[in-house]
Amino acid sequence: MRTSKHLIAALSLVCSQATAQETQPLLSVELNAQETTEAGCLLSFMVRNGHAQEIENVVFETVLFNTAGQVDRLTLLDFGSFPPNRPRVRQFLVDGLACDALGQVLINGASSCKVAGTDSPICDNSLGLSSRTGTELTG
């Protein structure tokens, strides 16, 4: 009886750890900083590729909303390549937009995602989004 209780407890722990690992995003995109420049709003993103393979190129379809919740523009952001298990920072200048007028950034999904020379769904699967700015990043 005692052995079965220990076995059940051990299996429960292993299952909960496996579930936590499965729900953890494998590709995380964080809106890390934004800075108003003379030309517009400079957005800095921190990206971590938790997949075992390199993402050769990813382009995200992105919608920018103003602080009133209205669409300001729809754009494609080419994030380039990401080696596995290494953080990368990518910056994009949004011409003619003051950062304080930006209320939300929505990532609609990957317009293009190349892994091993072919299209791959991994850029949309397990995508984790967060923001360290006053602007919400959603998807």
List the helices and strands and how they pair.
Elements (H helix, E strand, L loop, with lengths): L1 H22 L3 E10 L3 E10 L5 E12 L4 E12 L4 E9 L6 E14 L2 E2 L7 E5 L4 E3 L1
Parallel strand pairs: 1-8, 6-9
Antiparallel strand pairs: 1-2, 2-5, 3-4, 3-6, 6-7
Explain this structure.
The structure is a single chain. With about 140 residues, the chain is α+β, with helices and mostly antiparallel strands. The chain has one domain: Immunoglobulin-like. It is about 15% helix and about 55% strand. It is built from one helix and nine strands. The strands form two sheets. Strands 3, 4, 6, 7 and 9 form a five-stranded mixed sheet that branches. Strands 5-2-1-8 form a four-stranded mixed sheet, with no helix packed on it. The longest helix has 22 residues. It is elongated, with a radius of gyration of 19 Å.
Please give the domain count. 1
CATH-defined fold name: Immunoglobulin-like
Strand portion, in percent? over 45%
Shape type: elongated
Largest sheet: 5 strands, mixed
CATH architecture: Sandwich
| Structural class estimated from helices and strands | alpha+beta
Mean pLDDT reading: 87
CATH class: Mainly Beta
Counting DSSP E segments of at least 2 residues, the number of strands comes to: 9
How far do the termini sit from each other?
A: 49 Å
Sketch the topology as an H/E string, one letter per element. Answer: HEEEEEEEEE
List low-pLDDT spans.
6-21
Q: With helices defined by DSSP (H or I, 4 residues minimum), what is the helix count?
A: 1
What's the helical proportion of residues? 10-25%
